[in-house]
Amino acid sequence: MARGEHGLKGEELIQEGANFLVNTYTRYPILLVRGEGMKVWDSNGREYLDFVGGIAVCNLGHCHPKVVQALEEQARRLIHCSNLYHIGPQVELARRLCEHSFGKKVFFCNSGAEANEAAIKVARKYAKERYGEQKYEIITMEGSFHGRTMGALSATGQQKFHKGFEPLLPGFKYVPFNDLGAVKDAISPNTCAVMVEPIQGEGGVNLPSPGYLKELRELCDQKGILLIYDEVQVGMGRTGKLFAYQHYEAPPHIMTLAKSLANGVPIGAMVTTEEVAQALSPGSHASTFGGNPMATRVGCVVIDTLLKDDILQNCQQMGDYFLTGLLELKERYDFIKEVRGKGLIIGAELEFGGKEIVERCLERGFLINCTMDRVLRFLPPLIITRKEIDLLFAALEEVFSEK
User: Fold this and answer.
1) Do 146 and 156 touch, CB atoms closer than 8 A?
2) Residue 338, H or E segment
3) pLDDT at residue 255 in the model
């Protein structure tokens, strides 16, 4: 049985966590100590297949050799220095992001929430400078999730996350996802931007209807409004393309990234156009750890690996296989209401709460996730194979047959 730094067993460490950690997570009663590829192991040595991937973080799998090598090499060179000085890997990662997206400029931070804060700030500052002080409102979507900081929380269109933290920051309007008419109706003389996830992840794996994002971009251009995509969960190959917007022929003015950008090393990024980026000047925004050498070195490796190792193609093929298998299960179990997804962000909506399903899969050695109470969400590493998907389907068949 694995022991921690102070010689405590896994069960003892779990209890120590209850004693000393703020209770902000409903944790499952296992302590994970090691990972490799699709697999993780707990403190008792039990093996699990991971279909959560750190919540869409470990796109290359756990402890990918190239990621580990980059961390080791960079840790020997330079772990941190201030953004008062130039940082080589930061420049290299920014160049890669711009070369493979609509963007021309990048701001680095540490998380998705911070990336969205940067997007909110630059959108307001750009609009105020260009059109006047009245431009501050941002339209976001019901069911959206943009983070836990106060700006990102205020942008989030789910009341359950707001409870207890009111008053929220002013300047946000919520409209239904996939409803272009609602966006049109919400636009006012104060509107500066529309903020949307190309695919809602935390909101239940909700996909845009055909033409929605393209029409949304056209509307924003007509009204002189910025379009912001939150690709924190769906970016970096999750949908089978490097960025989700590339499926829809509708590039944004601003895009946010985090989660899988460095495969588990904390990082966030706000990517934007040359014109919008000019709204930020020295002193207008900053981040002490943003774009640090460790995270950006790994980010370069992640992008290079995604583009050179056929991982995007594997994501598309395994995503199709995964969806087909879930649809076959849906035919046999009428409590599965809907199956939806793109690439390897996939949801199966149930007629009842999914917590028990998650727990029974855990007992069988599979990590899966449930969001919006009833949507089983699957976010495995993009290196997954048919064999691993088939093993999960066999477990789901067992669990579903007991209902």
Assistant:
1) yes
2) strand 336-342
3) 99
Give me the helices (H) in 166-279, please. Answer: 180-186, 212-223, 274-277
Compute CA 371 distance to the chain's CA centroid, rounded to the nearest angstrom: 14
78-300 — its CATH code? 3.40.640.10
Rounded to whole angstroms, the maximal C-alpha distance in the chain is 63
> Contact 140/152 with Cβ under 8 angstroms?
no
Under a CB-based contact definition with an 8 Å cutoff, are residues 352 and 374 in contact?
yes
105 catalytic? Reply is no
pLDDT, residue 300, reads 98
Judge contact between 295 and 94, C-beta under 8 A.
no
Helix (H) / strand (E) element for 47: namely strand 47-50
Instruction: Specify whether 145 is catalytic.
Output: yes
The pLDDT tens digits of the residues spanning 191-248 come to: 999 999 999 999 999 999 999 999 999 999 999 999 999 999 999 999 999 999 999 9
- Is 259 one of the annotated active-site residues of the chain? yes
Residues in the chain, pLDDT under 50 = 1, 4-6
Using DSSP's 3-state secondary structure scheme, residue 331 falls into helix
Q: What is the pLDDT, as a whole number, of residue 9?
A: 82
Q: Domain spans of the chain?
A: 78-300, 320-350
Can you tell me the distance from the alpha carbon of 197 to that of 119, in angstroms, rounded to the nearest whole number? Answer: 13
Q: Are strands 172-175 and 39-42 parallel, antiparallel or unpaired?
A: unpaired
From the candidates 145, 161, 243, 378, give the one annotated as an active-site residue.
145
**Active-site pick, 125, 135, 259, 342:** 259
The vertex-225 CA angle with 243 and 230, nearest 5°, equals 30
d(CA 340, CA 347): 5
How far apart CA 374 and CA 361 sit, in angstroms, is: 15
pLDDT given at position 10: 83
Q: Which of 51, 172, 230, 322 is catalytic?
A: 230
CA distance 183 to 391: 43
Which pLDDT score is estimated for 7? 53
- Predicted TM-score of the model (pTM): 0.96
